[in-house]
Specification:
Shape: elongated
Strand content: 15-25%
Distance between the termini: 73 Å
Helix content: 25-40%
Oligomer: single chain
Number of domains: 1
Strand order of the largest sheet: 1-2-3-4-5-6
Structural class: alpha+beta
Number of helices: 3
Number of strands: 6
């Protein structure tokens, strides 16, 4: 075979290395942006979930007359219809389980009057893996004001989420 024909038969090692280097540069730029976009999406989903929980509390109280729900799972779907106060079917099963989109939801019902009917509640949404699934910690209570904080669980004194 003629030397010129052999040379044109494929790519040289230098050409392959250059192509791989370009691919690695592109990947090093796009992967961190993709991870940041996923983190922001998780945070937005956590806020939406807190908003849903706070909103359905009113429906729970009006439907069952027992104050706010005693637990997060009480707002979830029943194993079979019909819905009851123990399984009200107001939020989906994933959210009722307490973990969704990289966030862990901690629900606390408060019976400050000792009547057996919770008259207040708090919900904290904390990232499962801080810095990877979310940077912000969120909080909501019966006031329906969602608050956030960096570096640790949010509370009633944390910064409100802008509307």
């Amino acid at each position: 075979m003629h030397p010129v024909a052999r040379r044109r038969a494929g790519f040289s090692l230098i050409e392959v290395v250059v192509v791989i280097a370009v691919i690695l540069v592109i990947a090093s730029i796009t992967i961190p942006r993709l991870l940041k976009a996923k983190l922001v999406a998780n945070e937005s989903a956590a806020v939406a979930s807190l908003r849903a929980i706070a909103t359905v509390q009113v429906a729970y109280d009006l439907t069952y007359g027992q104050g706010f729900a005693p637990s997060l799972s009480a707002l979830g779907p029943p194993p079979a219809p019909p819905a009851t106060a123990a399984k009200a079917d107001l939020i989906d099963a994933v959210l009722a389980s307490g973990i969704r989109n990289g966030y862990s939801f901690v629900y606390v019902a408060i019976d400050s009057g000792g009547t057996g009917k919770p008259d207040a509640f708090t919900v904290n949404a904390n990232p499962v893996s801080p810095g990877q699934t979310g940077d912000k910690y969120f909080y909501v209570d019966q006031s329906n004001v969602i608050r956030y904080k960096f570096g640790g669980p949010a509370d009633v004194n944390s910064t409100p989420v802008p509307k």
